[in-house]
């Protein structure tokens, strides 16, 4: 039986996906993005990596938000 939720994304996946896809697939990331002042209406089509690069506390916050999900 397949779980009804997605598996934990890697840090690289979080950096490369468009933000609207990240929030759609991993809604628990939305609070961290809001705290960081990220506007999905303005930046939703942008990847996190293109927006901030790979070294950011926001990436750490998103990794922490999805940590409860199982790995594949």
Identify low-pLDDT runs: none
Helical coverage, percent range: 40-55%
Proportion of residues in β-strands: under 5%
Average pLDDT figure: 89
How would you classify the helix and strand content by structural class? mainly alpha
The Cα radius of gyration reads 12 Å
Number of strands: 0
Distance between the termini: 14 Å
The major β-sheet equals:
none
- DSSP helical segment count: 6
What does this structure look like?
This protein has helices at residues 11-16, 19-25, 30-35, 40-43, 48-52, 57-65. With 72 residues, it is an all-alpha fold. The longest helix has 9 residues, at 57-65. It is built from 6 helices and no strands.
How are the SSEs ordered, and which strands pair?
Elements: H1 11-16, H2 19-25, H3 30-35, H4 40-43, H5 48-52, H6 57-65
Please supply descriptive tags for the structure shown above.
72 residues, mainly alpha
Please give a quick description of this structure:
By secondary structure, this protein is mainly α. The chain has six helices and no strands.
């Amino acid at each position: 039986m397949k779980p009804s939720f997605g598996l934990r994304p890697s840090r690289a996946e979080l950096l490369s996906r468009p933000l609207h896809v990240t929030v759609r697939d991993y809604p628990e990331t939305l609070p961290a993005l809001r705290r960081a002042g990220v506007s999905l209406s303005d930046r939703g089509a942008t990847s996190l990596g293109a927006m901030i690069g790979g070294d950011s506390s926001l990436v750490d916050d998103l990794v922490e938000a999805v940590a409860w999900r199982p790995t594949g």
